[in-house]
Structure formats: C-alpha cells, structure tokens
Amino acid sequence: MSDAPDTFAEKGQIDAQQVSAFGQGPAGEQIDLIRIANGGTKAAIMTWGATLQDLRRTESDHALVLGSADFAAYLGPMTYFGAIVGPVANRIAGGQFVLDGTRFDLERNENNKTTLHGGAAGTGQRNWTLLACDATSCTLTVTHPDGEGGFPGNVTVQAHYALDETGTLTLDIQARTDRITHLNFAHHSYWNLDGHADLANHTMCINASQYLPVDADLIPTGAPAPVADTAFDYREMKPFTSPPDMALDHNFCIDSTDNELHPMCSVRAGQYQLDVLSTEQGLQVFDATGMDTTPFNGHTGQPYGHHAGLALEPQKWPDAPNQPDFPSTLIRPGETYRQRTHFRISVL
Fold first, then answer.
1. How far apart are CA 114 and CA 119, in angstroms?
2. Which pLDDT value is given to residue 2?
3. The whole model's pTM is what?
C-alpha cells in the first residue's frame, strides 16, 4: 500500500493493530485513529476529517503539528486542525458562484459573508470511512452529497497517507463527481517544528514571486502582485513575521506552470526543516493570528495561543469559481481530481 493508488481504491485489508477508538462524533458515530510509521517518522490519522492528528520524529518528544488528545477539541476551537477541507477550500466571495448559467447559493459560514472550507458540513467536518491500512499507510473515503452546503454534485473523495523509508509523508487526494462542479481540496495542518509556544524561532522560504492581495473579507482583489519589496517576499529563507497591521492569511502563487510535483516552501526551527512539495499552484499560508484553543489542551499540555503554528495549505487559488483568470477548479463527470503533496522532514 505504500504506493499511491492510480485509481479509486476498493475496500481492502485493515490491520486492526494500527486502529484504535478515539472519540464519538456529533451523531454518536465512532471516530477512529490510525497510527502509521516509517523512516523515523510516526503519524496518527483520524477518521474525522481525514485529519493528521499527530506527527513526530523519533529524535524528539514534541509533535510537529498542532492537535489534541481530546476529540471534543476538534468540534470546537480546533476545527480544521490537520483536516482535509473541501469540497472547495479557502473562501468563496459572497457565498455564491455561477456555473453554466445557474447561480449556486452556498452556506455563508464565515461572518455571514463568505463560504469557508466548504461550509459547516464540508469534508473537514465529516467522519470518513477507513478503506485500508497497514503499518506505513492508510486510505480513507467520504462522499459529499449533492446540494450539501449548496455545492452541486455527489462527490466521492479518497485520501491516501503514506510514510516512506525516508520518513516523508505523502498525501494523495482523488475525487470524482456526477455533476459539473468546483473542487479544490486542501490539507490544513498547523506546523510548529521546535515545540515552543509560538513561531518566534521559525524561518521560512516560499517558492513564489507573486501573491494575492486581499480585501477585508480575505477575498483576492484581483490579479497577483509581486512580492518584491513587500512583507510577503519569502523567496530567500528569512525569519517568519506577520505583515504590518494584519494577519498573514494569503495565497502565494507558486512559481510553476505545470501540475507536476514541485517545491512550495521550506520552514526551519530547532533541529528540523520541513519541505513541502505539491502538484498545486497555490499555497495558502496562515500564521494563526488570534488562535486560542482554551479550554482544550494541545500536544504541549497547554492550550494553543497566538501564532502557535503555521498553516501551509497546498491548493488552487482562493475564490477561483468567481475569478476566471485564476487556475480553474472546474471538474466534470468522468474526470478525476488529483492532488499530491509531500511533507519532507529533515534533521538539521
């Protein structure tokens, strides 16, 4: 199972030793946790949201992603932590788009203005089904039904997590629909490489010469702008900082013109470097401004606070359904949506 599936997987073998009960969902359903390991990396994947609940290296005790041992946290302040969000990640302006002449009104779940991460019943807030797992990988699936949150199409999604012999975590996402629709999934882990309370000691490099300026609702205002001579210039490794008077919650337009695996960013702190490679054209970076998970503790044993982690979300560009010049998120019946991302951790 270590190789990514080229086609949709059927129900396979489940190694029961890798699976344990983790919590109870809102409808009373059992939430399971699948543990995999390889190459000095250990990961835990939760069926709720196909969530990367924990990731660690054997050299140290601290987690490299934010998360909690209490499932209830994921129904509250840790919504989206580590989840696969969709069917359309990020924000859609005005909670609507027009497709083939028909206007689709979506759930406006952010300030009653925009649609965020597919709405309140998006893929990041659903219990996925475990299809197969072994010691180093697992495959999960969920169906997002036609009309849920206002989105057209019965969309079947599969996620395949695998750790290779180098300890690199690969995530493959595939999806199909029975109606023309928009799809743009994103993995939403918050990273903290040194286990400290904030990102003060983190440095970052992003393979992007352009980014998307946004309005007060964090919707792109139009064409990409150069990062040169701005706070968004991370083309060289430099200390992480938020832009003046605002959160860093922006899409970086990756310098790649194809859908092949390409470098997105590198982050360093403590003894580790994280390299993210993906097939996607955009990387949404969010600096966790305003984060407060009280009363729930994280992996540190304390609630997470301001700037506790860095969300690195490979995806297409935000609000693409309403921005015809952006990379298209349109998908039709008979086509297969595919996304691959590598999270490579090196010891410095």
1. 9
2. 40
3. 0.96
Q: What is the pLDDT of residue 257?
A: 67
Q: What integer pLDDT is reported at residue 5 of this predicted model?
A: 53
Q: Kindly report whether the peptide bond that precedes residue 87 is cis, defined as omega within 30 degrees of 0.
A: yes
Q: Torsion over CA of 86, 21, 77 and 149, rounded to 10 degrees?
A: 30
Name 54's bridge partners.
44
Domain total for the chain?
1
Residue 2 domain-assigned? Answer: no
Q: State in Å, rounded, how far the first CA of the chain is from the last one.
A: 30
Residue 108 belongs to domain spanning: 16-347
**Is 189 known to sit in a ligand binding site?**
yes
| Closest to 321 in 3D by CA, of 150, 109, 157, 196 | 150
Between the CA of residue 251 and those of 79, 119, 227, what are the distances in Å? Answer: 20, 20, 11
54 known member of a binding site: no
Residues belonging to the active site: 188, 313
- Look at residue 202 and tell me whether its pLDDT is greater than 90: yes
The domain that holds 254 is classified in CATH as: 2.70.98.10
Mean pLDDT computed over 208-228 = 97
Q: Is the pLDDT assigned to residue 198 strictly greater than 50?
A: yes
164 carries a ligand binding annotation: no
- Compute the average pLDDT of residues 106-131: 97
Question: Residue 11 domain-assigned?
Answer: no
Give residue 6's pLDDT: 56
Task: Tell whether 315 is covered by a domain.
Answer: yes
